[in-house]
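Reply to dn_fold:

You asked what the input looked like. This is it:
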Amino acid sequence: MGRKRTAEDRRRHAEQNGYNDDEATVDDNPVPRDVLDYTKERYDVQMELWFEYKTTHATADPHNLKTLKHFAEFMANSIEGVLDPNGKPTVQTVRNYFRCFVSGWNIDNPKALISRDLTESLLLISTV
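and this is what came back:
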Protein backbone atom coordinates (compact mmCIF):
# COMPACT_ATOMS: atom_id res chain seq x y z
CA MET A 1 0.00 0.00 0.00
CA GLY A 2 1.32 3.45 -0.92
CA ARG A 3 1.78 6.31 1.45
CA LYS A 4 -1.20 8.48 2.25
CA ARG A 5 -1.38 11.72 0.34
CA THR A 6 -1.58 14.85 2.44
CA ALA A 7 -4.02 17.66 1.77
CA GLU A 8 -1.08 19.72 0.50
CA ASP A 9 -0.15 16.94 -1.97
CA ARG A 10 -3.74 16.82 -3.17
CA ARG A 11 -3.83 20.63 -3.61
CA ARG A 12 -0.65 20.52 -5.71
CA HIS A 13 -2.12 17.72 -7.80
CA ALA A 14 -5.32 19.76 -8.34
CA GLU A 15 -3.26 22.75 -9.52
CA GLN A 16 -1.27 20.54 -11.90
CA ASN A 17 -4.58 19.34 -13.35
CA GLY A 18 -5.77 22.88 -14.07
CA TYR A 19 -7.48 23.96 -10.84
CA ASN A 20 -7.70 27.77 -10.74
CA ASP A 21 -7.68 29.20 -7.21
CA ASP A 22 -9.42 32.40 -8.36
CA GLU A 23 -13.06 32.30 -7.20
CA ALA A 24 -13.98 34.94 -9.78
CA THR A 25 -14.14 32.18 -12.39
CA VAL A 26 -17.14 30.60 -10.61
CA ASP A 27 -20.65 32.07 -10.41
CA ASP A 28 -23.29 31.41 -7.78
CA ASN A 29 -26.11 30.43 -10.13
CA PRO A 30 -27.72 27.06 -9.40
CA VAL A 31 -27.46 24.54 -12.22
CA PRO A 32 -30.95 23.35 -13.19
CA ARG A 33 -31.63 19.88 -14.45
CA ASP A 34 -32.34 19.40 -18.12
CA VAL A 35 -36.09 19.12 -18.62
CA LEU A 36 -37.84 17.58 -21.60
CA ASP A 37 -40.01 19.97 -23.63
CA TYR A 38 -43.13 17.96 -22.79
CA THR A 39 -42.39 18.23 -19.08
CA LYS A 40 -41.63 21.96 -19.34
CA GLU A 41 -45.02 22.44 -21.00
CA ARG A 42 -46.71 20.78 -18.01
CA TYR A 43 -44.80 23.10 -15.69
CA ASP A 44 -45.76 26.13 -17.77
CA VAL A 45 -49.47 25.29 -17.46
CA GLN A 46 -49.19 25.45 -13.68
CA MET A 47 -47.16 28.65 -13.86
CA GLU A 48 -49.98 30.20 -15.93
CA LEU A 49 -52.37 29.24 -13.14
CA TRP A 50 -50.05 30.96 -10.64
CA PHE A 51 -50.10 34.15 -12.71
CA GLU A 52 -53.89 33.96 -12.82
CA TYR A 53 -53.93 33.58 -9.03
CA LYS A 54 -51.66 36.63 -8.77
CA THR A 55 -54.25 38.76 -10.60
CA THR A 56 -56.40 38.69 -7.46
CA HIS A 57 -53.56 38.23 -4.94
CA ALA A 58 -50.95 40.74 -6.08
CA THR A 59 -48.76 40.33 -2.99
CA ALA A 60 -48.79 36.51 -3.08
CA ASP A 61 -45.39 35.03 -2.32
CA PRO A 62 -44.72 31.33 -2.99
CA HIS A 63 -42.17 31.35 -0.16
CA ASN A 64 -45.01 31.81 2.34
CA LEU A 65 -46.70 28.61 3.53
CA LYS A 66 -50.09 30.30 3.95
CA THR A 67 -49.93 31.52 0.35
CA LEU A 68 -48.92 28.08 -0.91
CA LYS A 69 -51.82 26.46 0.95
CA HIS A 70 -54.27 28.95 -0.48
CA PHE A 71 -52.86 28.55 -3.98
CA ALA A 72 -53.06 24.74 -3.67
CA GLU A 73 -56.73 25.09 -2.71
CA PHE A 74 -57.28 27.34 -5.74
CA MET A 75 -55.44 24.82 -7.91
CA ALA A 76 -57.44 21.88 -6.56
CA ASN A 77 -60.73 23.63 -7.25
CA SER A 78 -59.62 24.52 -10.78
CA ILE A 79 -59.04 20.88 -11.77
CA GLU A 80 -61.80 18.92 -13.42
CA GLY A 81 -61.61 15.45 -11.91
CA VAL A 82 -62.31 12.43 -14.07
CA LEU A 83 -62.72 9.64 -11.52
CA ASP A 84 -65.07 11.37 -9.09
CA PRO A 85 -68.75 11.59 -10.08
CA ASN A 86 -68.82 15.18 -8.76
CA GLY A 87 -65.81 16.16 -10.85
CA LYS A 88 -63.39 16.55 -7.94
CA PRO A 89 -59.74 15.68 -8.59
CA THR A 90 -57.99 12.99 -6.58
CA VAL A 91 -55.48 13.96 -3.92
CA GLN A 92 -52.73 12.46 -6.07
CA THR A 93 -53.74 14.62 -9.03
CA VAL A 94 -53.58 17.78 -6.93
CA ARG A 95 -50.20 16.74 -5.53
CA ASN A 96 -48.85 16.09 -9.03
CA TYR A 97 -50.10 19.45 -10.32
CA PHE A 98 -48.63 21.19 -7.29
CA ARG A 99 -45.27 19.51 -7.81
CA CYS A 100 -45.36 20.69 -11.44
CA PHE A 101 -45.95 24.25 -10.19
CA VAL A 102 -43.03 24.07 -7.74
CA SER A 103 -40.73 22.60 -10.39
CA GLY A 104 -41.80 25.24 -12.88
CA TRP A 105 -41.23 28.00 -10.35
CA ASN A 106 -37.81 26.68 -9.39
CA ILE A 107 -36.71 26.41 -13.03
CA ASP A 108 -37.91 29.92 -13.83
CA ASN A 109 -36.57 31.43 -10.57
CA PRO A 110 -33.25 29.73 -9.75
CA LYS A 111 -32.28 32.47 -7.27
CA ALA A 112 -35.60 32.24 -5.39
CA LEU A 113 -36.28 28.51 -5.04
CA ILE A 114 -39.32 27.30 -3.12
CA SER A 115 -37.80 25.33 -0.28
CA ARG A 116 -38.35 21.64 0.15
CA ASP A 117 -39.49 22.28 3.74
CA LEU A 118 -42.45 24.29 2.46
CA THR A 119 -43.46 21.83 -0.22
CA GLU A 120 -43.11 18.79 2.03
CA SER A 121 -45.15 20.50 4.72
CA LEU A 122 -47.89 21.26 2.24
CA LEU A 123 -47.87 17.80 0.68
CA LEU A 124 -48.19 16.21 4.13
CA ILE A 125 -51.47 18.03 4.70
CA SER A 126 -53.17 15.97 2.01
CA THR A 127 -52.22 12.72 3.75
CA VAL A 128 -53.61 13.65 7.17
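Helices lie at 7-16, 37-56, 65-78, 91-108, 116-125.
Hope that clears it up.
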